[in-house]
């Protein structure tokens, strides 16, 4: 190999190594989850402002919220490093593959937490900042380290931190929390049960192998299917309760139509369970993601019409 070619090969190798490290740390933040959280935050801010908030405030909340969610997820990976190798779904996470050392992952998560808190404190208000800190602490200390491993109701209690971005976004705009903010919080909170129950059905054996008492592991399939139906109804009912609070048909009609489809999919899971047919839980999982996206996009569109 020519000297010039060898030098280029070394530079390419180093560049690839740097990108691999970057990708590993990015993976710790679970960007797909962060993306879903932010989808609910911006429409909530728009409704709170009754229009478009300042671009600067939206940017601060987006970056601060991304850092906070990334921090919580990175620390979650650190805390779950003993069980992640036991589950196929998590067996390729950076701590399992040794792409990132546990100590480095913890430092990274804590650094993101400090950065998100500092950003929110400097440019929003005390309520939004307090809610941001509370969400990180709740997810990692209350949910991951305790409830996830101790109760089959872990999905229910974990739903609190999953719905917090709505309250954080609203508080960043107004410095307070109105009834509409709590209803939007309720939509995301109730939605998480059928959404994550579907995932837990798909990966039931993983959770059992890791000793995580998910409802799908400790309860009958009928119980899980019934709860999925109940919480899908609660999700849609809560979303429709937002309609009279200054929303128009631009929001209400999509929320109603998509809500009925969401409920029908949950009932379909129940029906297949009772008939002993293949349950196909990922149908509900993917549709629930589409449902939440459509409902919150409708919130944002409604503000402008």
Q: Could you explain the architecture of this structure?
A:
By secondary structure, this protein is mostly helical. It folds into two domains: 27-177, Tetracycline Repressor, domain 2, CATH 1.10.357; 178-305, Four Helix Bundle (Hemerythrin (Met), subunit A) (Up-down Bundle), CATH 1.20.120.1780. It is 80% helix and 0% strand. It has twelve helices and no strands. It has helices at residues 3-28, 31-49, 55-79, 102-123, 126-150, 154-174, 179-202, 204-210, 215-218, 221-241, 249-275, 281-303. Helix 6 (154-174) runs antiparallel to helix 7 (179-202). The radius of gyration is 21 Å and the shape is globular. The N and C termini lie far apart (65 Å). 42% of the residues are buried. The model has no long low-confidence stretch (mean pLDDT 93).
